[in-house]
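Re: flavin mononucleotide structure - here you go.
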Amino acid sequence: MQTELSKQLGVEYAVFGFTPFPAVAAAISRAGGFGVLGAVRYTAPDDLARDLDWMQEHVDGLPYGLDVVMPAKKAEAPGGQALTEADVEAMIPAGHRQFVEETLAKHGVPGLAEGEASGWRITGWMEQVARGQLDVAFDYPIKLLANALGSPPADVIERAHEQGVLVAALAGSARHARKHADAGIDIVVAQGYEAGGHTGEIASMVLTPEAVEAVAPLPVLAAGGIGSGEQVAAALALGAQGVWLGSVWLTTTEADLHSSALTRKLLAAGSGDTVRSRALTGKPARQLRTEWTDAWDDPAGPGTLPMPLQGLLVAEAVSRIQKYEVEPLLGTPVGQIVGRMNSERSVQAVFDDLTRGFERAVERLNRIAGRA
Ligand SMILES: Cc1cc2nc3c(=O)[nH]c(=O)nc-3n(C[C@H](O)[C@H](O)[C@H](O)COP(=O)(O)O)c2cc1C
């Protein structure tokens, strides 16, 4: 399972793993893949530094990367300056706040204790927050910087290259992939409709070869709907130089979902139990379908607000739902591959399964091609 890109990065397997959890990212690198830590939830630079220190101690000198969310389309204050969190809060209509409270009340969701902060307060998609994360990350020997929601700004690409860090960006269409290539990035992550998190409308089977063709000779990683070695083989057969997996790590023993009810829901969910909804961030993101996403997607409701308003509007509500494990409302970003996530396993066990399945697929194709 070696490609030019995996050799360039010095990893055994061309398997890249996106995860918000440092313990999972480190385990992916130790298992022979390339762990990528999602930084979006780190609003305090010191927290990111603490977790990168931890990663340094636990990757056994193996390479890893960081993922930030710098939207190419920035929300700006009327004067053109970057929006602050207070500006965003002030833009949220009272009717939407009322809808949040009514929906929570309908399910009897308790409030947070006096003075208790909302744990799920993601502002990492605000450029000044993401830049703070980068200031921390460039002090560590990261080998890859990935960006969701567009190409990173030119000065960020330049800074990464000066430090010998490869730059990747997620793309949901061949057009986006070409834009990234024109911006000077090194790797395109072609993420199909099936994927967990923010997705476009083109399925991986169609997108992967289109992206490969659009940006050749730049390497493309296939993302979306990959959870078995056979699927890895299919992606590599379509021309990808590796795969980028996000959902499958959520039910690993190293993941820290803070909710056994959520883990149970993921293990029980089928591939049809996700929905692409704007409920979490204001942009379409695939996640478990719940009564919370149904409420936001109901045409009788007020509808969602654009990014970054929706994320701040629902931040406290999401924390309350998670804290009190209110099952009908409890969800997480996850892709259609959730249908095969049926047992809690270690990251190493996932890799063992991926490599065995890959070998089976190669043997099968060799037999079909008359080479076995
Ligand atoms: C819980 C979760 C959170 C995600 N958050 C981000 C993110 O912050 N930045 C990003 O680039 N991609 C994010 N993604 C998308 C992943 O990077 C990856 O492209 C996707 O999960 C691949 O498809 P799969 O879910 O079918 O494995 C997230 C995915 C999941 C499941």
